[in-house]
Amino acid sequence: MSELKMKILELLKEDARRTAELIATMLDVTAAEVKQAIAEMEQDHVIVKYATVANWSKVDDEKVTALIEVQITPERGRGFEGIAERIYLYPEVKSVYLMSGAYDLLVEVEGKNLKEVASFVSNRLSPIDAVLSTKTFFILKKYKQDGIIFEEHEVDQRLPISP
Amino acid sequence: MIKDEERSMNATVRRASMADYLAPGARSMKPSGIRRFFDLAAGRKDIITLGVGEPDFVTPWHVREACVYALEMGKTQYTSNAGMPELREEIGNYLYNQFDVAYDPAQEILVTVGGSEAIDLALRALITPGDEILVPEPCYISYSPITSLSGGVPVGIETFAEDHFKLKAESLKAAITPRSKVLIVCYPSNPTGGIMTYEDWLPIAKVIEENDLIVISDEIYAELTYGTKHVSLASMPGMKDRTILVSGFSKAFAMTGWRMGYACAHPELISAMLKIHQYTIMCAPIMGQVAALEALRNGKDEKDRMVEAYNQRRRLIVHGFREIGLECHEPQGAFYAFPSIKSTGLSSEQFSTRLLNEANVAAVPGDVFGMGGEGHLRCSYATSVNQLTEAIERIGRFVDKLKAE
């Protein structure tokens, strides 16, 4: 990917609301070039979606998130792909990663409450034939997500005017 | 009898106020113009400030962590007067690799409490009362006052926006008299963002040599250049022995509060500066030195990331000023834009004060930086993109209002 696209991606990652004109000025290119690059990245699924990183703990109807380590038996010919797909298609599953190490898939599940997540694990995930075992870990507090620190302590402490 | 007379004479010269106790140098020194403006802005919470001469990044965590670990390990002692040998070694490697100047860490490098101490030491080591010290202006606010404190006579050399605030050989030549001894330069420049290229330095180096000057080259912003690499005056042919290179960690590594700087020069000059340093400061604090060492060894990636961010903001602010209709030369170094506000008909002081009161934006009036600064504002872009965008919008509305008056 071109250097320009990488830089645009980084600027959008920091703040997806930045306009093409603003990015163009920051990178010393034309707005048309930025728009073109963004369109291409959207087309190529480099940019998959523009989303908001929310700190749900500040919202009243707080969600419960669990990370589940899953051991599975790979399928002949398809390896882990088929099982992963069966799992990630559930809407309560937020992310699925194939991992190296003691287990195979790391599944992030979100639910309204503890009961809902527990029910997903026992009724949906565990009964899948290829699933050998699961270990569920509930997230108690999120400090940092996607490189963003939720409770930013490093506020600007500079004097308003300095040499 | 004589003793009594002396006593009665002493009684008659009793000092009328505390101010009478002050040394003439301290008494006559004016408070910094930045200080004056700071007082105006202090306590206001609603302002966006472009008045800050320091990075908006906090010192990278690995640097802070190295210092915390050193404290846990009980590193709280004096170091050698000149600074930790391994730090001086690393400074030497860094200057050689980055800016092509070779210094012997044992004899030619002195670690100081900020670049400011290094400049003070250099001036105190060099000045005989009455010597003239040449200072291209607009410039950092301290050079002239500390020159005066050392008994020197500061002589300003005006530089101009149309020359991108570069020092010109003919202006330098015109300012030289038989009493000229030292030239202080600071490129990349605070407050203008001007830089000097190899070609810019060549004729200057010639004048320096012909007139047998010593140069204090403040290169604190050396890492912050955009599009062209910093050229150290000390790396120019014939200049190393005539130059006291002053730098530090504040700007490149976001370490302002640590007060870590250094000076590099001919062994005899460093030796003289070291004598003053050991009697006044003893040594730079060890915790700062440990942090500086970590910054030099492992700080390149973080530094590059910060420089890239400054560059993006630089384009934003220059573009913004030009859109508003304020002339702005393109700063190629440091993190300041120095737009002209002459078209508004206001002085720098008037413009800055009204901008603060009517638009809640703080920027430093250019006249506090000496000759050539009047009619300009110093605007630091070491602040977030959102704040910059908002500041530009407010300044734009303010300028429109001025036009309508």
The share of residues in extended strands of chain A comes to: 15-25%
Number of helices of chain A: 5
Estimate the helix proportion of chain A, in percent.
25-40%
Helix-strand category of chain A: alpha+beta
What share of the residues of chain B lie within helices? Answer: 40-55%
Which class best fits the helix and strand makeup of chain B?
alpha/beta
Rg of chain B, Å, rounded: 23 Å
Second CATH tier, the architecture of the largest domain in chain A: 2-Layer Sandwich
Order of helices and strands of chain B: HHHEHHEHEHEHEHEEEHHHEHEEEH
Largest interface: A-B, 16 and 29 residues
**At the fourth CATH level, what is the homologous superfamily of the largest domain in chain A?**
Lrp/AsnC effector binding domain/regulation of amino acid metabolism (RAM) domain
Walk across the major sheet of chain A and give the strand order: 2-3-1-4
Give a count of the beta strands of chain A, DSSP E runs of length 2 or more: 6
DSSP, total strands of chain B: 12
Low-confidence stretches of chain A: none
Calculate the mean pLDDT score of chain B and round it: 95
Q: Describe the sheet with the most strands of chain A.
A: 4 strands, antiparallel
Count of helical segments of chain B?
14
What coarse outline of chain A follows from CA principal-axis ratios? Answer: extended
Order of helices and strands of chain A: HHHEHEEHEEE
Gap between N and C termini of chain A: 41 Å
Structure summarized in a few sentences:
Chain A has 163 residues and is of the alpha+beta class. Chain A has helices spanning 3-14, 20-27, 31-43, 81-88, 114-125; strands at 64-72, 93-98, 105-111, 131-138, 144-145, 148-149. Chain A has two domains: 3-43, Arc Repressor Mutant, subunit A (Orthogonal Bundle), CATH 1.10.10; 58-141, 2-Layer Sandwich (Alpha-Beta Plaits).
